[in-house]
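Researcher: Go.
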Amino acid sequence: MIRLGKQVTQAGDQLQDITLVKFHKALLNPDGEVATLQRRLQAIRALDPAQYRRLKTTLPYVVCADFHPKVRRKENFLHADRFILDIDHLSDFGHDLEELRTKLKLDPQVELLFASPGGDGLKVLFKLDKPISDAAYYAGFYKAFGLVFRNRYQLGEALDIKTHDVSRCCFVSFDPGAYHNPESEGIQAEIYLKQEDLFALDELKAAVKEATAAVQHPPSPENSNQELPDEVIKRIKEKMGMKVHQPRQKDYVQPEELEEIMDLIKGLLEGIQLELSSVRPISYGRQCKINSGKIWAELNIFFGRRGANVVATTKSGSNKELAKQLVEYLQSELTPYS
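Model: Structure:
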């Protein structure tokens, strides 16, 4: 059993239980509203991407988790006995949809398989041998399983493992080739969860190594275009008898949880041999500069009503690849604060 919703943008949209058999039949229906809307979506996708994204949100959607009340919110989460992996933009990553579909049909763990509304991706549904009732445990398992699955089929970035939230939904589509295996094998979550930290750490280390190797000719100190520190400028002006402007100290809101979160982040960075070189307060968070040798990335760590959130800044010089990997790694470790 999974849950079906009709208006993803509507707050409080009520979910309805639906069997896998009924859902599979709906995917195959060429005369339904979904098929009509999907044909329109695919026609305008290349012509008007913005309109495509707006129309896509009018499609019905499904979630594998159960909620009480029947509204797709994290605080309403009861348990999940299934989950969906999202493989998208296959052509961009050199994969053929039908070839991959053929391979996945042979996988005894795949319970349901159907194409995404855009026509360039696949949704792969699995069942668990035992329901998961802890949202953090689910997120950890999802990422660990996703990494194994990604490597098994050499999917690379086509498989998005950031879609690990229990409330994550999946839009329904029309797919005459939709596949259902009612005898699929249940996934044992315990096999994958213990491997999560190892997989995430290995990926991060590989990204840092790659980013370091990419910098063949780091600038020398005398030629580098570094900004002169404010304290140095201040001392020079004082020696010259110039008036030094004292900026008014800003009073930033700093939730108590930030101290605990920053202690956790320091430990995580030490564990992967990265340096937290500077931290400064910002509204509801901290701005952090993280170094790997001469390479660095700047991140903002926020804590608010929706919990902890890690965001890469756009500061010039911040290494985008290092920042991307750090955001994914730290966000996954901060799940208990989300």
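Model: The two ends are 27 Å apart (CA to CA).
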